[in-house]
Specification:
Elements lengths: L17 H27 L6 E6 L1 H9 L6 E7 L4 H5 L4 E9 L5 H11 L8 E7 L11
Amino acid sequence: MGRDNLPSLLELENYHSPSIFFTLNFLQDKVFEDAKLVIEALKNKGVSAIGAAGFCWGAKVVAELAKSDNIKSAVMLHLSFVTVDDIKEVKCHIAILGAEIDESSPPELLKQFEEILSPKSECFEQRTHTIDHDLHLNGLENK
């Protein structure tokens, strides 16, 4: 068991089980609240321009930060759990980098994000790489 008696991610055998979603939702909420504290501390030290980057489920945390006035720019890579509704609320510059083969954020979903963001002043860059969500290079064997 992990912190707070929640199963650790390594203990979860099925990525799509209810336990993984409960755990990830808990972690996302906790990381979001912790990130706001760090951002506030940085602002109190005189830092005026703060950005955030997140991979996979961390991209959902970055999406939440991007919907607030907490950060000035965001980068999301190989994102999971980010929705069209999240992107509609983005208030800062954002770059979204996805994979060519990705069930969590397929190119069709990234295209919807681009359509939402392109009329706004936010920048959007979609780069699809010939890797899948788990960062495996397609067509190359592990040696």
